[in-house]
UniProtKB/TrEMBL annotation:
Mitochondrial glutamate/H(+) symporter. Responsible for the transport of glutamate from the cytosol into the mitochondrial matrix with the concomitant import of a proton. Plays a role in the control of glucose-stimulated insulin secretion. It is found in: Mitochondrion inner membrane. The keyword Signal does not apply. Solcar repeats lie at residues 5-92, 100-220, 229-318. It comes from Astatotilapia calliptera (Eastern happy). This is Mitochondrial glutamate carrier 1. The lineage of its organism: Eukaryota, Metazoa, Chordata, Craniata, Vertebrata.
Length: 331
C-alpha cells in the first residue's frame, strides 16, 4: 500500500507540474506549431516573437492559448503513464539489486515513451488543429494586404475586421470535443491516432535521451551517493536534459506536426505517411526545415521538466497525501 501511496504522490507531483508548466509555456508551444507548419514562400511569421505579437493582435491574448484546454485535461494522465512506466521498467531492470547501467536506463526510457503515446497522440492531434487555425486564417487572407484607407474604400464589410492594415477573419471557433466527434464519426478511433508512428519516433528517442541524461546530471550534484541533489541542481538538470532531448528529436516533431495537421493552407501539400513527409520536406524545403521551431521546443520543454523536478524536490504530492484522509490507510 505504501508503494501505491508513493506512486500517487508521484502522480500528483507530475500532474501539478504538468498543469503549471503547460500554463507557463503554452504560447511558445503555439508559436512552435505555427512555425513548423509554414512552408517556404508562404511565411506568415518571421520568428517566435513575431508569431506571438501577430497572434495577440489578430486573436487577442487568449488566442495564444488555443488548444490549451486539451493539454491541461490530458497532461496529468500523460505524465502519470510516462512516470509510472519509467519507474516500472527501472524497477524490473534493476532486479539484481545493482544500479542501472546507462543502457538499462535507456531501455526504461524507451518503454516509458512507448506507453505514453496512448494519451499523447490524440492530445497532440486535437491541440495542433486548434493551434494552427489562426495561421491558416491569416494565410487565406494574405493576398488582401492593403492600407487601412484603401480597405475602407473597397470593402465596408471587411473593413470592420482589419487589424494593422491586414484583413484577418477570426478563425471559426471549433472546440476539441467537436473535432474529436468529427474524427470518430468519419474515421473511427484511428482518426485520433493519425501520426502515431511519428509520435513514437519522437517520444521514444526523447525518453531514451531524457531519463538517463537527467539521472546522470542529477547524480553529479549529489553531495554524497545517499543524499539528494540540491533544489536548484534538480531544476537545472531537468532543464538541461529536457532541452537537449527536445532539440535532438525536433526533426521527428516537425514530421509529426505536418502529418497531424488536417487542414492545409492553399497550395500546401498533403502527406501519405512518415517516409513521404520526410522526402517531400527534403525536396521542397531542404534539411533546415527539420529544425523549424527547435528553439521554441527547447524553451517549452526545458521549464516543463525543470518544474517537474522542482515538484518532486518540494514534495507537493507527499504534503497533500499527508494531510488527506488517505494517510490513515498507510501502514
Amino acid at each position: 500500500l505504501s508503494n501505491s501511496l508513493c506512486f500517487l504522490s508521484k502522480l500528483i507531483n507530475g500532474g501539478i507540474a504538468g498543469i503549471v508548466g503547460v500554463t507557463c509555456v503554452f504560447p511558445i508551444d503555439l508559436a512552435k506549431t505555427r512555425l513548423q507548419n509554414q512552408r517556404r514562400g508562404q511565411q506568415v511569421y518571421k520568428s517566435m516573437m513575431d508569431c506571438l505579437v501577430k497572434t495577440v493582435r489578430s486573436e487577442g491574448y487568449f488566442g495564444m492559448y488555443r488548444g490549451a484546454a486539451v493539454n491541461l485535461t490530458l497532461v496529468t494522465p500523460e505524465k502519470a503513464i510516462k512516470l509510472a512506466a519509467n519507474d516500472f521498467f527501472r524497477h524490473h531492470l534493476a532486479k539484481d539489486g545493482k544500479g542501472l547501467t546507462v543502457f538499462k536506463e535507456m531501455l526504461a526510457g524507451c518503454g516509458a515513451g512507448m506507453c505514453q503515446v496512448i494519451v499523447t497522440t490524440p492530445m497532440e492531434m486535437l491541440k495542433i488543429q486548434l493551434q494552427d487555425a489562426g495561421r491558416l486564417a491569416v494565410q487565406q487572407q494574405k493576398p488582401v494586404m492593403m492600407t487601412p484607407t484603401k480597405l475602407v474604400a473597397t470593402n465596408a464589410v471587411l473593413s470592420r475586421s482589419y487589424n494593422s492594415g491586414m484583413v484577418i477573419s477570426a478563425p471559426r471557433a471549433v472546440s476539441a470535443t467537436q473535432i474529436a466527434k468529427e474524427l470518430l464519426q468519419t474515421q473511427g478511433i484511428q482518426g485520433l491516432y493519425k501520426g502515431l508512428g511519428a509520435t513514437l519516433m519522437r517520444d521514444v528517442p526523447f525518453s531514451i535521451v531524457y531519463f538517463p541524461l537527467f539521472a546522470n546530471l542529477n547524480r553529479l550534484g549529489k553531495p554524497s551517493p545517499e543524499a539528494s541533489s540540491p533544489f536548484y541542481w534538480a531544476f537545472l538538470s531537468g532543464c538541461a536534459a529536457g532541452s537537449t532531448a527536445a532539440v535532438a528529436v525536433n526533426p521527428c516533431d516537425v514530421v509529426k506536426t505536418r502529418l497531424q495537421s488536417l487542414n492545409k493552407g492553399a497550395s500546401e501539400e498533403t502527406y501519405s505517411g512518415v517516409v513521404d513527409c520526410v522526402s517531400k520536406i527534403m525536396q521542397k524545403e531542404g534539411p533546415s526545415a527539420f529544425l523549424k521551431g527547435a528553439s521554441c521546443r527547447a524553451l517549452v520543454i526545458a521549464p516543463l521538466f525543470g518544474i517537474v523536478q522542482v515538484m518532486y524536490f518540494v514534495g507537493v504530492g507527499e504534503y497533500i497525501l499527508d494531510n488527506s484522509p488517505l494517510r490513515l490507510l498507510g501502514p
